[in-house]
Structure formats: structure tokens, C-alpha cells
């Protein structure tokens, strides 16, 4: 090979290395402030009903992991008002589907029965433990299905045709009374102020069918309106501070369709105090469309449920870092006030949870995703505001007094490090105080901030790096 050829190859190699080391420039604008974070959280359904019967010390340990400002720092929790299925179905379709944990206890076993306020003791215990540990806790009461005896199919999993309503209009009064009785009971007996009451869950989807794997009930958007028309004046007369949240659809496409139907009716947004959506699927165009709705409505707004879904991932870490990318898109484009996970504890997998559990043996272990979530929820505290960044893989927030800026760098690639160069609008007033990272070999590990320079911050493959700047 000639010297000229060797020189050319070396030049190409040098250029490739130089290009690979070129930092990704990220502008962080502390002046462009967006939504204030109300909090982070999760549904209590179904894990709390199981864990609430465990040993008291284990319960306290789990609640501390979830609520402690030094751990997950969660303060928003969705309490499930179980409908309760036909007792003849016990140990059957739900147990074979999502497990016995999905067999929620209802509070009223029949139209002429008294309310059973001892029902669902486990979930109630977790709720009250959280209330005691977090004075700023925010609770939502939500329903997956009315009691089985109210439904057309006499099954709280859904109708014989999954795309058809399972609650007759003649039962709307009974169902709304049921929801309000539970909410009022928890206020009068336990002083639990539910911020919101959500009567629907992914209701226009076609997931909910007779003898399915969990409680669920289809409501067409028009049916939702008719039920809300009955619920709103009843709730107003209770004297509670609770407001209605809706529609809690499974994805952004469904949410946009339902919001359009609500608008066409005319009065619905007067009845609804908060908008909720799930983001199991959705693109950025839809996120921006939802944001446009929120700008128009000027109501509180939650991303109330999501989880890892889709993708051919080789590990739970890879899967959940891609969920963080969804989280970043949600927070940066759709701008919800709160962002919630579906489950905190699961059996038989380490992907859809922060703690893996065996509900029979009362054993649990922290899994990698807990540290992934901590990288965001521990450091972007309640009351912080999301601020502008110009890169999809970077999320930033500022404290209420402006003394602290949090910047979080995401690398979802499986084999390539990334080098970020951060540029602040007023960088001279801040200095890097703390750095934490979660990666294959690190669990929200505190790193020496003196080893980092904003001119080039290395983010290893499959990692999440949180940087705290202070004045």
C-alpha cells in the first residue's frame, strides 16, 4: 500500500474520531418557564390491595421508598374504587388474566345491600400510610367499572362486545351515587380529600369484554357526556372540594377524539375540572394538539397513566430509558402538571414496576427502573417549573426561587456514549453542585461534580445523568 493511501486512511479515521467526539450542543433557557410540576406518582391499583395486608414494617419500608424526598419523591396517587365482580367468577377469568390482584373488592354487593366499608382494606391501608407520610399528598379516586350487578353483562370486566357500553343509561344514577358514597365516606371517616373523581378509564377503547382479565367498562364519548351530566350536579351538592377529571383515554388519538366530542356538546367543559390522559401511544404532533387544547381550556392537566410499551428491547433498562424519552416528550411538548406511572410493584417482571414482588411470600426487591425514575422525580421537585431546552434528550427545570437548575441527560443508545455541551443563558450565575447517574452499573449514584465540565459531559450508553446547578 502506498504512503498516500495510508495517509488517506489515517485522515478518514481521525475525522471519524473527531466527529464522534464532537459534543451535542444544548441550549438551556432559564427565562422561558413552562408548567409548574404538581408532582409525580402512580395508581394504587392493583399492588396496594395486595401489599396492604403485609407485615407492618415491610409496608412502612415500601411507603418510605415511594414517598421519601430522597427516593422516588412521589406525592400523587390514584385510588381505585373497585366495582367488584360476580362472586361466582372468583378465581376465574381475572385470576387467569392479570392475577387475583385484579379481583377488586366492591363496596356494595347488590342493589339492596348495605355498603361494606371494610372492603379493600389493603388499598385503604396504603392510602392512609401515604397520607401520613406526605402532608402534600394529592389523591384521585377513579373507577375501572361499575359493580357487576349494575352492568348489562353482569360482569365487571366488560360487555359481550368489547366496543359496546356495558352500563345502561338507567343505571347512571346508581353508578354516580356509588362513586359519590365512596368519596364522601373517605372524607368523613378518614379525612381524605380526593382532589379529583374520575368515573372512566380508557373507556372508548375495545379492551373490556365479558370475562376479561380485569375490571373495565366501555363508554362511548356520548355516553360519557350523559353520565357527567348526572354526576356533576350531584357532586356539586356534596360540599366536597373534589372536581371531576376526564376522559383518561388510553392514548392521545382517543383523547383528542373525545375532547372534540365534548366540545361539540357545548357544556361538558363546565363540568370537568381537570383533563387526564394516558400516553400508552401517541406521537409528537398529537402531543402538540393536546397542548393546544390545554392552552384553550386553562384547566389542570395530568398524564395520569402510562408504562413501557412497544419496541424490541433487550433489557428492562433499555425499555425504561425509552419510556423516559416518552416522559421527556410528554413534559416538553404536552406539558402536563403531573406525570404518573401505572404500577409501582409487579410480579414476574422487572419492567412494569419499580419494585418486583411476590405477593404470596411478601417479598420484594428494588429493580433498576426505580433508579431510572428517581433520576427525574427526586430532583425535579414539586413546585419546580420545566424550562426550555432545544434537545429531545435533555429535560431541565428550575426551582421556584430560581436558585437551582436541574438538567437531565438521556442516552438510549445501547453501545455509544454521547457527549453533551450545555449552554445556559446566564451560566455565570450558576455552578455545578451535584451529579447523579443511573446506568448498567450505577444506581442513581452520586458522582464527583469536579470531574464534569459543561463544555463536555459524557453520557454513557444506556444511561440517565442528572446535574444540579446552584447559585
UniProtKB/TrEMBL annotation:
Check the record and name the SUPFAM superfamilies matching this protein: (Trans)glycosidases (SSF51445)
Q: What is the protein's given name?
A: Glycoside hydrolase
Alphabetical UniProt keywords: Hydrolase, Signal
| An example Gene Ontology molecular-function term | hydrolase activity, hydrolyzing O-glycosyl compounds
Protein's organism: Zunongwangia profunda (strain DSM 18752 / CCTCC AB 206139 / SM-A87)
Query: Signal peptide location in the record?
Result: 1-20
Which residues are in the Endo-beta-1,6-galactanase-like domain?
25-249
Q: Does the keyword GTP-binding apply?
A: no
Q: Which InterPro entries match?
A: 6GAL-like, 6GAL/EXGAL, GH
Q: Which Pfam families match?
A: Glyco_hydr_30_2
Q: What superkingdom heads the lineage?
A: Bacteria
Amino acid at each position: 500500500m502506498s504512503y498516500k493511501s495510508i495517509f488517506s486512511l489515517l485522515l478518514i479515521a481521525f475525522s471519524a474520531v473527531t466527529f464522534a467526539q464532537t459534543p451535542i450542543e444544548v441550549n438551556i433557557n432559564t427565562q422561558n418557564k413552562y408548567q409548574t410540576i404538581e408532582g409525580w406518582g402512580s395508581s394504587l391499583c392493583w399492588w396496594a390491595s395486595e401489599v396492604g395486608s403485609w407485615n407492618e414494617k415491610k409496608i412502612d419500608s415500601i411507603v418510605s421508598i415511594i414517598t421519601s424526598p430522597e427516593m422516588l419523591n412521589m406525592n400523587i396517587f390514584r385510588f381505585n374504587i373497585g366495582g367488584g365482580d360476580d362472586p361466582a367468577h372468583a378465581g376465574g377469568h381475572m385470576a387467569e388474566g392479570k392475577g387475583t390482584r385484579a379481583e377488586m373488592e366492591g363496596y356494595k354487593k347488590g342493589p339492596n345491600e348495605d355498603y361494606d366499608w371494610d372492603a379493600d382494606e389493603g388499598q385503604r391501608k396504603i392510602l392512609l400510610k401515604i397520607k401520613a407520610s406526605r402532608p402534600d399528598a394529592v389523591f384521585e379516586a377513579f373507577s375501572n367499572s361499575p359493580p357487576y350487578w349494575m352492568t348489562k353483562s353482569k360482569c365487571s370486566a366488560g360487555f359481550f362486545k368489547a366496543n359496546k357500553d356495558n352500563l345502561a343509561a338507567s343505571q347512571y344514577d346508581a353508578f354516580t351515587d356509588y362513586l359519590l358514597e365512596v368519596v364522601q365516606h373517605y372524607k368523613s371517616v378518614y379525612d381524605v380529600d380526593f382532589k379529583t373523581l374520575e368515573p372512566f378509564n380508557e373507556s372508548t377503547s375495545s379492551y373490556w369484554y365479558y370475562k376479561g382479565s380485569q375490571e373495565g367498562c366501555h363508554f362511548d364519548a356520548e355516553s360519557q357526556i350523559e353520565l357527567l351530566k348526572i354526576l356533576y350536579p350531584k357532586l356539586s351538592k356534596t360540599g366536597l372540594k373534589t372536581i371531576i377529571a376526564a376522559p383518561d383515554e388510553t392514548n392521545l388519538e382517543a383523547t383528542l377524539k373525545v375532547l372534540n366530542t365534548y366540545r361539540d356538546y357545548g357544556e361538558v367543559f363546565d363540568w370537568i375540572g381537570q383533563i387526564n390522559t394516558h400516553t400508552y401511544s401517541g406521537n409528537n404532533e398529537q402531543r402538540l394538539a393536546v397542548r393546544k387544547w390545554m392552552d384553550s381550556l386553562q384547566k389542570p392537566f395530568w398524564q395520569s397513566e402510562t408504562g413501557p410499551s412497544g419496541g424490541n428491547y433487550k433489557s428492562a433498562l433499555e425499555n425504561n430509558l425509552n419510556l423516559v424519552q416518552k416522559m421527556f416528550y410528554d413534559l416538553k411538548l404536552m406539558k402536563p402538571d403531573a406525570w404518573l406511572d401505572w404500577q409501582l410493584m409487579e410480579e414476574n417482571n422487572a419492567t412494569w414496576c419499580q419494585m418486583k414482588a411476590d405477593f404470596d411470600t411478601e417479598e420484594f426487591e428494588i429493580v433498576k427502573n426505580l433508579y431510572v425514575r428517581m433520576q427525574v422525580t427526586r430532583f425535579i421537585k414539586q413546585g419546580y417549573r420545566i424550562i426550555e431546552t432545544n434537545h429531545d434528550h435533555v429535560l431541565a427545570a428550575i426551582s421556584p426561587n430560581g436558585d437551582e437548575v436541574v438538567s437531565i441527560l438521556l442516552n438510549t443508545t445501547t453501545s455509544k456514549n454521547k457527549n453533551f455541551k450545555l449552554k445556559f443563558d446566564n451560566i455565570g450565575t450558576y455552578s455545578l453542585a451535584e451529579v447523579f447517574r443511573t446506568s448498567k452499573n450505577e444506581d442513581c449514584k452520586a458522582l464527583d461534580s469536579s470531574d464534569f465540565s459543561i463544555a463536555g459531559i459524557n453520557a454513557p450508553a444506556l444511561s440517565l445523568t442528572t446535574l444540579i446547578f446552584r447559585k
